[in-house]
Amino acid sequence: MKAKEIKLIVKDKYGEIALQSKNQNQSSCCGSSGCCDDMDYTIFSDDYTRLEGYNPDADLGLGCGIPTEYAGIKKGDHVLDLGSGAGNDCFVAHTFVGEEGKVTGLDFTDGMLEKARKNLEKTGFTNIDFVKGDIENMPFPDLTFDVVISNCVLNLVPDKEKAFHEIFRILKPEGRFCISDVVLEGSLPVELKEAAEMYAGCVSGAIKKSDYMATIEEQGFSEITIHKEKQIIIPDEILSNYLSAGEIEAAKQGEFGIFSITVNATKPISV
Q1: What is the pLDDT of residues 152-172, one digit of tens each?
Q2: In what order do the strands lie in the sheet with 102-107?
Q3: CA distances from 160 to 35, 137, 155, 183, 255 (A)
Q4: Is domain 3-266 in CATH 3.40.50.1580, yes or no?
Q5: CB–CB of 202/226 below 8 Å?
Q6: What are the C-alpha distances in Å from 130 to residues 36, 90, 103, 107, 115?
Q7: Which residues pair with 184 in a beta bridge?
Q8: Contact of 67 with 149, CB cutoff 8 Å
Q9: Higher per-residue confidence, 50 vs 199
Q10: Which residues are paired to 259 by β-bridges?
């Protein structure tokens, strides 16, 4: 698919997901329409309920890690959350920056932005805002942010090189990012990779881990570290929609796999 088509698919899917609760996402990413073959988005997600700042109304179970955990956010920092959705990671990040800092969420889906802003209204916080924009062409000046976080979003971006270039551009010197994302080991079968439903479900938009890490390094980042890595186990009943029995067995034998990683890196002080 062309980049424009991919973005339209992602925007449409997440616009529908924005109308649902976390419980609904556990049964089907598109509700009664069944357009995602009963894909359970929450098979990727970590448990946020123990975290300070957790807002259950903002948790749609769409993440694949907890990027604030290794972001090194300090009081007074300006944090940007890429693909902020209903605001889950923004509200957690707010507990780190305090009233002296600021949190900005960027998303290109109107439904998600509307949901995030409604959740924000309930908090009374005045130092969080949600902005509409594209990760490949962010509406921010150079050197704006201290920290960038993102949770299971960059894998949906068609041009990852451009995305990391933009992250580098808008970070201040010695600024850092911490991103949870989905990557691949081995070669994912074509049938799975090209399925639009699974693309919006964070699988076939992913690239090989080695390519992902190389892209980060090529953009000039330093101190690149993977803090967490776990294999994503997709139930056979979902895989059977895309793979043969032999291919499912090959996945179990480790010939290919889907993993979530949480990685951070720093923008050098002189570039």
Answers
A1: 899 888 899 999 999 999 999
A2: 128-132, 102-107, 78-82, 145-151, 171-185, 257-266, 222-231
A3: 26, 12, 8, 12, 25
A4: no
A5: no
A6: 28, 9, 9, 8, 10
A7: 208, 258
A8: yes
A9: 50
A10: 183, 231
Res 19 pLDDT > 70 = no
φ/ψ (deg, to 5) at 202: 80, 15
Tell me the CB-side half-sphere exposure of residue 167, using CA atoms within 13 A: 35
Instruction: Tally Cβ neighbours within 10 Å of residue 59.
Output: 26
Q: Cβ(152)–Cβ(180) under 8 Å?
A: yes
pTM for the predicted model, two decimal places = 0.86
DSSP string for 63-119: -SS-GGGGS---TT-EEEEET-TTSHHHHHHHHHHTTTSEEEEEES-HHHHHHHHHH
Determine contact, residues 183/208, Cβ cutoff 8 Å.
yes
Boundaries of every domain in the chain: 3-266
- What integer best gives the mean pLDDT of the chain? 84
